């Protein structure tokens, strides 16, 4: 017997459901309840019309009714931040549970707290195992191939041996799944702490290259001596490096985090939702694909020097197909592409131990736009994944200090009152007899840059700067 959690909402819900006859709590809600995990998603199986019960529940609880599938009789009630999914039973309860994916999700709970467990889900919970009910589970819905890996990462479980074999055998069937559903599972996996372990499991089970076949080109592609891994393994390691930087995993010396303070502003930045997922999950995705263009741009010069000139731009172009295939939004696509395009730039801003100039910082944030902060951390992750176990702490600390300086300067500029506009396009046209056109935009942007760098602070200085630029250009 399991004690149902008590709350005002639950008490109203239980009272309503008891009047509806044979109704059961099923699936993930039961699993999480038995594990003591908080959840706001509840699956409710109804022996009868689930749509009618859902409508009555929405009215009684003051929630919103959402029709999910008219043909299959499925509906959702959203109330007080909870999502209650109502589905009709397929036959009797045991046969309904037999159609589910994993034993830990094939349990039901009566409203009196009795656990119905015909397939040993409780035993697998105790053993911390993800076990499929049968091979047919993956044939019926191949997204379960990904869900097994995501659940294992989410719960800290292992995937049972025979289930792993079925997943590997049916990995290719993932191509039958709609891109939206694949994206959902992939991003849920990347949003977890220690996402590198989940990505590694995707790789070992043969799922990763079905998801992103373009990554396969990176396997075995050698790199210059400073790299510990080939391009493919480096890409996987970069995901783990993001975990490390965000304090979601280990793998590098603790002292490597000393100069990286995630103040509240940065925590808010990475924890903010984009496309329904924490922003850090997009950073991990960018880490996974940041070098996807390297294999196509690899050259070996006389003397054996390996180069990948233009690989960020090539990678961003390749990502257009990847992101469209997985049905990412335009904003998500542009964010990940921008991270890939600019990932080398932060390390190039502070050379020879000198901090980056205010002008360089201004240009970087102007060009990288929304992806600027994310790309700073991608650059750090790239460094860690380049050196791997051979990380040179002095070199790393220089990179980390430069990044901290860039962030501090940027956050300082955000706290300051924006500098006043000294002159505008009308001033330029009137005072310098310039016609409308691109030259005006170039001059105004150059002036904003000079103002950000502290070179110009008054209207007179702005006019003198403009006159100097026009003379330099021979205008």
Question: Would you kindly provide a written description of the structure presented here, covering whatever features stand out?
Answer:
The protein has 475 residues and is α+β, with helices and mostly antiparallel strands. The protein folds into 4 domains: 1-124, 2-Layer Sandwich (Beta Polymerase, domain 2); 128-211, Hydrophobic Seed Protein; 223-415, no CATH class; 425-472, no CATH class. 54% of the residues lie in helices and 9% in strands. It has 24 helices and 13 strands. The protein has helices at residues 8-18, 28-35, 50-61, 93-98, 121-127, 136-140, 143-155, 161-169, 179-190, 195-204, 208-211, 231-245, 264-271, 279-289, 294-297, 311-325, 330-342, 345-349, 358-368, 372-387, 393-415, 425-432, 438-452, 459-472; strands at 23-26, 41-46, 64-69, 74-79, 82-88, 108-109, 115-116, 129-130, 158-159, 273-274, 277-278, 299-300, 306-307. The strands form 4 sheets. Strands 3-4-5-2-1-6-7 form a 7-stranded mixed beta sheet. The protein has a two-stranded parallel ribbon with strand order 8-9. A hairpin with a 4-residue loop joins strand 3 (64-69) and strand 4. Helix 1 packs antiparallel against helix 3 (50-61), helix 7 (143-155) packs parallel to helix 9 (179-190) and helix 9 crosses helix 14 (279-289). The longest helix has 23 residues, at 393-415.
């Amino acid at each position: 017997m399991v004690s149902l959690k008590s709350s005002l909402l639950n008490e109203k819900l239980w009272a309503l459901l008891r009047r509806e006859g044979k109704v059961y709590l099923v699936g993930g809600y039961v699993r999480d309840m038995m594990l003591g995990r908080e959840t706001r998603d509840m699956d409710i199986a109804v022996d009868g019309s689930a749509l009618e019960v859902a409508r009555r529940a929405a009215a009684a609880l003051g929630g919103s009714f959402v029709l999910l599938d008219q043909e299959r009789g499925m509906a959702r009630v959203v109330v007080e931040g909870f999502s209650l999914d109502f589905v009709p039973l397929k036959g009797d309860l045991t046969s309904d549970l037999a159609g589910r994916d994993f034993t830990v999700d094939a349990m039901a709970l009566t409203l009196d707290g009795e656990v119905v467990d015909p397939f040993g889900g409780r035993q697998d919970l105790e053993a911390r195992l993800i076990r499929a009910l049968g091979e047919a589970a993956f044939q019926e819905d191949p997204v379960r191939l990904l869900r097994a890996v995501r659940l294992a990462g989410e719960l800290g479980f292992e995937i049972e041996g025979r289930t792993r074999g079925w997943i590997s055998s049916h990995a290719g069937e993932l191509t039958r799944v709609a891109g939206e559903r694949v994206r959902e599972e992939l991003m849920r996996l990347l949003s977890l702490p220690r996402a590198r372990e989940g990505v590694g499991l995707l790789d070992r089970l043969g799922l990763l290259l079905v998801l992103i076949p373009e990554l396969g080109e990176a396997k075995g592609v050698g790199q210059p001596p400073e790299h510990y891994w080939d391009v493919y393994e480096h890409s996987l390691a970069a995901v783990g490096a993001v975990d490390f930087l965000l304090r979601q995993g280990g793998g590098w010396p603790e002292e490597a985090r000393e100069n990286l303070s995630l103040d509240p502003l940065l925590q808010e930045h990475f924890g903010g939702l984009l496309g329904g997922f924490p922003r850090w999950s997009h950073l991990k995705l960018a880490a996974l694909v940041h070098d996807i263009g390297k294999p196509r741009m690899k050259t070996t010069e006389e003397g054996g020097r390996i180069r990948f000139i233009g690989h960020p731009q090539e990678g961003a172009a390749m990502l257009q197909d990847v992101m469209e295939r997985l049905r990412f939004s335009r904003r998500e696509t542009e964010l990940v592409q921008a991270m890939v395009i600019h990932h080398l730039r932060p390390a190039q801003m502070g050379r020879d131990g000198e901090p980056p100039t205010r002008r360089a910082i201004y240009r970087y944030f102007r060009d990288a736009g929304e992806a600027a902060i994310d790309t700073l951390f991608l650059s750090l992750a790239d460094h860690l994944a380049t050196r791997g176990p051979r990380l040179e702490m002095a070199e790393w600390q220089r990179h980390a200090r430069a990044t901290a300086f860039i962030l501090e300067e940027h956050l300082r500029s955000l706290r300051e009152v924006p500098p006043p506009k000294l002159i505008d396009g009308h001033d330029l046209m009137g005072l310098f007899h310039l016609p409308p056109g691109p030259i005006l935009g170039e001059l105004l942007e150059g002036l904003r840059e000079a103002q950000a760098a502290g070179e110009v602070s008054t209207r007179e200085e702005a006019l003198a700067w403009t006159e100097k630029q026009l003379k330099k250009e021979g205008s």
